[in-house]
Specification:
CATH class of the largest domain: Alpha Beta
CATH architecture of the largest domain: 3-Layer(aba) Sandwich
Number of helices: 12
Oligomer: single chain
Number of strands: 16
Strand content: 15-25%
Length: about 425
């Protein structure tokens, strides 16, 4: 048994006067909460508040969260939002655990010393092994922001918004070894607005999930929830894999609504980025990278100017997309600058033109070479288009060389 485990046993046997001072504490069941980011706070708050009511049937015995992260090149250590909120609300520091992995033997030993009867997770961010799941007799219940079995995985809200769903929800489900596949105790549906972004929807779903959890805790702790929970239909399951940074790039060779949905889904992190072509007053093209913050979408009946010209109207940039659709960009950000509205961005161009495709026919080779950045060649189609243009240029030169060789005029060739 670890030193901390022995200390915890003494704490619970003698009573933590500073925190567990209720006379009914001995009748309360121990709950351990696991969560880490900002979206976990609604669940933590309701558990803390409910556990402090004298008539509460449970007490919050411990909190488990991700280890502190280092910022400013390691000079500053930042606790997770859950750890910070718990401390701000007077929760004992020695009852906040921050293991690197939930399967660490020292942590498992400390958890057993707490005698938890139920564990609750909400965006904890760590895989729970069988030796963890076997400890609480009433199981581990997860607050999951989707209507299971839909969107099992690390990014259910983001993937749902990316798919453009009109309805989603939050589920309370028992945790099993298979990812988000346990029996569902209860769920609540939520209509999805066309313009809500992932951070706002996440907060709304976890807020509803927190209320749903408090309502269901009595049935979970008396065991009846296990009998009413229904198994998921695996044939209807969809996945919500973790978002990768390279997914943030968008191509305007899609329907504008698809791009709009991606902007909403990836708001916050990793964001949505695009490359535009900036034409200066002399007609020289330059690559411009932008981060798209807020958008709308619309149909366009007629185009003004070239089909790939980006225009400005009604306070937004109008970027033509496929299928006669148009992406309206209301807010954006360029590298090294703050988020700005489309009006300020457009005024800053000072007459320069914008196009929505970086690689245009007719652009000379001397454009590609000085602007080539291998780290930014994320989109395969951009790379292929560039290589085709370079190949065409050298084939043209080769044809001239061959033709003049045949004419015996090699000495007169000028490059």
């Amino acid at each position: 048994m670890s030193l901390k485990a022995r200390s915890l046993r003494r704490s619970f046997c003698c009573g933590n006067v500073a925190y567990f001072s209720s006379a009914a504490a001995s009748k309360q069941k121990n709950i351990v909460f696991l969560g880490s980011p900002q979206v976990s706070l609604p669940v933590l708050d309701v558990l803390l508040d409910a556990s402090r009511v004298p008539s509460s049937i449970f007490r919050l015995a411990a909190i488990v969260t991700q280890p502190p992260s280092r910022r400013d090149r390691g000079r500053k250590v930042i606790s997770s939002p859950v750890a910070q909120r718990a401390l701000d609300k007077g929760f004992p520091h020695d009852l906040i655990f921050t293991p690197e992995r939930a399967g660490e033997e020292s942590f498992i030993s400390d958890l057993r010393a707490l005698n938890p009867e139920l564990c609750i997770t909400a965006a904890y961010g760590n895989i729970l092994p069988s030796k963890f799941l076997d400890i609480p007799p009433y199981g581990t219940v997860n607050v999951h922001p989707s209507l299971l079995p839909l969107y099992r995985g690390a990014a259910p809200v983001q993937r749902a918004l990316q798919d453009g769903v009109e309805e989603t929800g939050v589920s309370l489900a028992y945790t099993v070894r298979a990812l988000d596949a346990g029996p569902v105790i209860s769920h609540e549906k939520v209509e999805v607005d066309d313009y809500i972004k992932a951070p706002e929807l996440l907060l709304e779903l976890f807020d509803k999930g927190a209320k749903l959890l408090i309502h269901e805790i009595p049935s979970i702790l008396d065991g009846s929830a296990k009998y009413k929970a229904h198994a998921q239909d695996d044939s209807k399951a969809t996945s919500a894999p973790k978002i990768k940074p390279e997914e943030s790039w968008v191509s305007f060779e899609q329907d504008a609504k698809q791009i709009h949905n991606k902007v909403r889904a990836f708001a916050g992190w990793p964001g949505t980025r695009a490359r535009l072509q900036l034409i200066d007053g002399k007609g020289n093209p330059n690559a411009l990278e932008i981060k798209i913050i807020t958008t709308r979408f619309c149909k366009i009946s007629e185009t003004k100017g070239d089909e790939d010209d980006i225009l400005f109207d009604g306070g937004s940039l109008l970027i033509p997309c496929v299928g006669s659709t148009c992406l309206e960009v209301l807010e954006l950000q360029i590298p090294g600058k703050r988020v700005m509205n489309a009006v300020d961005f457009w005024n800053g161009l000072r007459g320069q033109k914008l196009k929505n495709r970086l690689h245009q026919k007719g652009i000379a080779l001397d454009y590609y070479l000085p602007h080539l950045n291998w780290k930014n060649l994320i989109r395969l189609e951009d790379f292929v288009l560039m290589m085709l243009d370079i190949s065409c240029f050298f084939l043209f030169v080769l044809e001239i060389v061959v033709m003049r060789l045949r004419l015996g005029q090699l000495s007169k060739i000028a490059f």
